[in-house]
Write a structure and sequence with these properties.
- Helix 1 links the parallel strand 1 and strand 2.
- By secondary structure, this protein is α/β, with parallel strands linked by helices.
- The protein is built from 12 helices and 8 strands.
- It has one domain: TIM Barrel (Alpha-Beta Barrel), CATH 3.20.20.
Length: 297
């Protein structure tokens, strides 16, 4: 599954002032990410504000990204939910032309146990015509895919090819890496811990920062994967302050503020999300100026 190694970017959905989708900005952003070294695109994830898009908008955004991409990079489509039957029915109805994999978040709100998580992803595996990447983010879902469950899925289902791990539990991450099948990917779900996860044997990151700075972050990831840890560490620490600022007022508020400052999109989100505070925005702009960071478009 080398197509999902390295830098994946969890793409934002840009909006106009009336909160309609800004397709012109989406074209600019898509080309910006592709032309600056990203390895694969992730659409309709958390950072896309997917839960505030209706089905027609989700399909339109996905189709437009596929059109602009034109087969240049693999595309991973976010497909998750807390109603297993509804989700599997949706997968069966989906046109997967131009889609190379799905990213499926652990069910949220109803808080299933490990048996429920196992059976949920088993059902997804059985109907998905493309590889499946699990997404573990307990801070959002209130359910953790523990190491034993992840490993049982990894060994038991050939088309479950990896996990985006955003639990922050490094002991859990290490157990998965230690006991997983050779080809199973452990992908960091957090830019800030991408480097340590790679040094432990991880395969890359699905990044928020990469929306704005794909070239720079791809270089850090590539250096880490080549075990050039001194150079990777230097780039890692260059961006840690900015990464912290991205999440002070929530995601994707921080990255949209950055991209607005870089001239890549307008700074609009859909309720219940709101733009970063004035104080955070000032800190973001000051950090960008200090780092002399500009978008390469």
């Amino acid at each position: 599954m080398k197509q999902f190694e390295g830098l994946g970017v969890a793409m934002i959905t840009p909006f106009k002032s009336d909160r309609s989708v800004d397709f012109k900005a989406l074209e600019v952003i898509t080309n910006h990410i592709i032309d600056n070294g990203c390895d694969y695109l992730v659409v309709m994830g958390t950072t896309s504000e997917t839960v505030t898009l209706n089905q027609e908008e989700r399909e339109a955004v996905t189709s437009y990204i596929k059109e602009i991409n034109n087969g240049r990079l693999p595309v991973v489509l976010g497909m998750g939910g807390n109603n297993t039957q509804h989700l599997t029915d949706t997968i069966k109805r989906t046109d997967f032309e131009g889609i190379d994999g799905i990213l499926s978040v652990a069910p949220y709100y109803n808080k299933p146990g490990q048996k429920g998580l196992m059976l949920h992803f088993k059902e997804i595996s059985m109907v998905s015509p493309v590889p499946v990447i699990l997404y573990n983010v307990p801070g959002r879902t209130s359910s953790n895919i523990d190491a034993e469950t992840c490993l049982e899925l990894a060994w038991g289902f050939d088309n479950i090819v990896g996990i985006k791990e955003a639990s922050g539990n490094m002991a859990q991450v290490m157990k998965i890496i230690k006991d997983k099948p050779d080809k199973f990917l452990v992908i960091s779900g957090d830019d800030l811990i991408a480097l340590p996860i790679i040094t432990l044997g991880g395969s890359g990151v699905i990044s928020v920062l990469g929306n704005a700075f794909p070239s720079e972050w791809k270089e850090m990831i590539s250096l880490a994967l080549k075990s050039d840890l001194g150079s990777a560490r230097e780039l890692h620490y260059k961006y840690t302050e900015l990464i912290d600022l991205l999440f002070i007022d929530g995601n994707p508020a921080g990255i949209k503020s950055v991209m607005n400052s870089l001239g890549l999109c307008q700074n609009y989100l859909r309720l219940p999300l709101t733009a970063v505070s004035r104080q955070t925005g000032i800190k973001i702009n000051t950090t960008l100026e200090d780092l002399k960071l500009k978008a390469t478009v």
